[in-house]
Amino acid sequence: MNNNLLLDNSFASTLVNSLPCGLVVVDRKGRVRAVNNISERVLMISKQTVIGKGTGNVLGCLHVSDHPKGCGFAECCHYCEVQKLTIKALDTNQNQKASAHFQLIIDGQVRDLTLFLSAFPFIFDDESFSILMIENLSTISAFAPKEAREGFWGLVGSSPKMLELFDTIRQVARTNAAVLIQGESGTGKELAALAVHKESKRAHNHFVPINCGALPEGLLESELFGHVKGSFTGAHRDRKGRFELADDGTIFLDEVGELSPATQVKLLRVLQDGSFEPVGSERTVQVNARVISATNKKLEEEVLAGRFRNDLYYRLCVMPIIIHPLRDRPEDIPLLVEYFLDQFSEETRGRKVTFSDTALSILRSHPWPGNVRELINTIKFALVKRRGNRIKPEHLPPTLLPYMANHLAIRHRESKLKTDSVLEALAQTGGNKVRTAETLGVSRSTLYRFFAKQGIDLVDS
Description:
Elements: H1 10-17, E1 22-27, E2 32-35, H2 37-43, H3 47-50, H4 55-59, H5 81-92, E3 96-106, E4 109-124, E5 127-134, H6 137-141, E6 151-152, E7 155-156, H7 160-173, E8 179-182, H8 189-199, E9 207-211, H9 217-225, H10 242-245, E10 250-254, H11 261-273, E11 275-276, E12 285-286, E13 290-295, H12 299-304, H13 310-316, E14 319-322, H14 333-343, H15 345-348, E15 354-355, H16 357-365, H17 371-385, E16 390-391, H18 401-416, H19 419-428, H20 433-440, H21 444-454
Parallel strand pairs: 8-13, 8-14, 9-10, 10-13, 15-16
Antiparallel strand pairs: 1-2, 1-5, 3-4, 4-5, 6-7, 11-12
Helix pairs in contact: 7-8, 11-13, 14-17, 19-20
């Protein structure tokens, strides 16, 4: 039996392949017998390569290669939640559900993900199977950014600042030197790091990200360098650290400015000679991993304040990259809006949704303290609030109300200006724009915008 299990008739095939969630059919031995189309597309696999193998080959489990026989034979496989779930469904003949944490490889990126899984028992040709449903595939697909015509590797923009960023990334990618990416929160530092990896000769190996500010010091050391069985409470087996997983690939240290002094010392040694000892081990591990780090802090100030090692800073910042905040490149906003509306096409049910000119102008005038991440949330909010295929100012979130009111007030003042009255006021004031604005009861900037719109080119007086 093979993938024809799903293709027994055209109705079943259409139904299964129309599901918005992943579907994997598993036999009692834990071997994959069928997968649906969305599983192939999102998990970036082919049916031909996973049929007859373990579920880890479908999900991209990090430990598939831990044993020569593959998925299901390594020591860690005894603790696999997927295997437990599918077998329990068969043994009890009842539906089973579970939420489980996994380390998966998605498009070459090592990721920590929590997936919601369901297993349903059924019998086909007197043989027992479990239908495994993966319900939150959107979480996985978010880690495989699409190329966009306005940018690359998920970075979108055509402003001079973004074009300069793309060029810098291409240049930096040709080297193996350490890279430090600096920028405000929400500017896309991880996307820039991934772009460096994808543009480099290491692209065929793993990209391994870790958030240094999200883990306590003790756990962070284990995550970075790994540990051996019994080295601390809960260490039931040996585990590779992120540096070892990134061997011949790239490790991305996000929020590197949050590292404790003790961890900074250990990281410095890895940068110097590529060696470290896993927690609880006397064995020295040697790796060849490119280090890309990122921070929203100004590390130069952290060094001066004594919170960050001077020698580590210079080891990390061999190739600096700066990502400018969104408020400094408002000309990219229409492109970003179009890009994310396309990405959220599931929420628009395939309909072409656009922003009105007024709503788009409001977005351009907003300072975006949360940068692109805030813009994404704004678009999602507007998609929920809209009543048709046109997003208007009233569909924007309340956080934009002050800028909305200011924008509409400016437009109202501009609408009151008439070319004849402006030219008459200019003549009365001898061409003095400050006095002309006072005469018309508007600000000088409003008058300048009116000149620009009308194509009036006058020398300042």
